[in-house]
Amino acid sequence: MSTAHDEDHEHGVRTRLLMLRAEQSVIAAFRVRVYELGWSLRGPVGGVNDPVKMACGEGHTANAKPISVLAGGFILDSQVGPLPQAELEACFTCRRKREEAEGIAAFPKYASDFDLWVLGDEKTQYGGPAKTVRCLAGHVFTVPAVDPRLHWKPSPHRDLLDLKEQNPHEHPCSTCKLIRDVPKIASFKANADAQGTMILEPLTGRVSQRVAICCIVGHLSQIGINQGHDAEVMCRPCRTGRTAPPHDVFYVVSGTDAVTGVPTVKLGISSGAGHKRLEQHATVGLSQRHLVRTGLPHGVARTLEAVLLTHLAKEGWKRTRGDEYFPAEALPTVVAFAENWLGADQFETGAASEGTSPLGP
Ligand SMILES: [Zn+2]
Ligand SMILES: [Zn+2]
Ligand SMILES: [Zn+2]
């Protein structure tokens, strides 16, 4: 009787000892892990299930149970409540702040990658830094002043929930996206390009918009997207004159662009004497003429424009707006390339056998 009681007692003591040792090793592991993760303890350590107050190097506090070193524990953050991930972790607040700082530091690169011109400082609705920017097409909008591509992962539930989340690797201008996605507006732009017609105001993404245009000759007129997207001749004066003018002028002008406020060089093509078109540029500050070649054979001006744009892109020149506006620093490159190309008989003129250009200045 007494022997059985002693055995029971001994068994109980041994079990309690084992439990105690297990708890002690969990707590020891907890202390080590807490230290490794950059926390320091700010309160007494009790049992494995008693929350312990901790602080990170920055003084952000959190509570964790020692048991959380084993899978299935959890940590409480004073600012965000229970963390979704149920493990002892490095300070969430610190990580978020570090990622924010990295995002802000990377914003200039982001703006440059997407050709955004920064116009001014703003605040997001949460009080974070934001910037008012303008895209190359002239749309002005506000974005958070962070590079959203950093630390971004597509939501795993994206397809499941049919989430329309913004992909940060896409251009952030929603108006540009609208223009790309509305077929009529996209073909309006393509048609203007094909006809050498300048669109003088930013497209708004609305099909009902009437747009001021400057044709290849230099006529100013207006046309709606609905009429212009498939018009054979977009320019009204040219249409009534019933002649599709040839693209036989190549020009380079410069000045301080009234639209961007930036010293700018503009290259382009025109028709006839090209002067009306150049006058149009002068009205926005691009009044200095560096190169005006008229009477070019069919296709030459257009081809030169295309190869020159490719050349500038290869050299890393960034556009200031539209397709053919570049910082004034690019002027020597632009003029040298164009003169070299035009003088190098890269086109069939049928009259250039003397080695001199048949084209007047
Ligand atoms: Zn912290
Ligand atoms: Zn845009
Ligand atoms: Zn015209």
Task: Kindly describe this structure.
This protein is α+β, with helices and mostly antiparallel strands. The chain folds into three domains: 2-94, no CATH class; 106-171, no CATH class; 177-343, no CATH class. The protein has helices at 2-36, 92-105, 107-113, 158-161, 174-181, 183-194, 225-228, 236-241, 275-283, 300-314, 331-343, and strands spanning 40-41, 52-55, 61-64, 75-77, 81-82, 117-123, 129-134, 140-144, 198-199, 210-214, 220-224, 249-256, 263-270, 288-293, 325-327. The strands form four sheets. Strands 1-2-3-4-5 form a five-stranded antiparallel sheet, with helices on one face. The protein has a four-stranded antiparallel sheet with strand order 14-12-13-15, sandwiched between helices. Residues 80-86 and 346-361 have low confidence and may be disordered. The structure holds zinc ion (3 copies). One zinc ion binds next to helix 8.
List the helices and strands and how they pair.
Layout: H1 2-36, E1 40-41, E2 52-55, E3 61-64, E4 75-77, E5 81-82, H2 92-105, H3 107-113, E6 117-123, E7 129-134, E8 140-144, H4 158-161, H5 174-181, H6 183-194, E9 198-199, E10 210-214, E11 220-224, H7 225-228, H8 236-241, E12 249-256, E13 263-270, H9 275-283, E14 288-293, H10 300-314, E15 325-327, H11 331-343
Antiparallel strand pairs: 1-2, 2-3, 3-4, 4-5, 6-7, 7-8, 9-10, 10-11, 12-13, 12-14, 13-15
This protein binds zinc ion (3 copies).
One zinc ion is lined by residues 215, 217, 219, 235, 237-238.
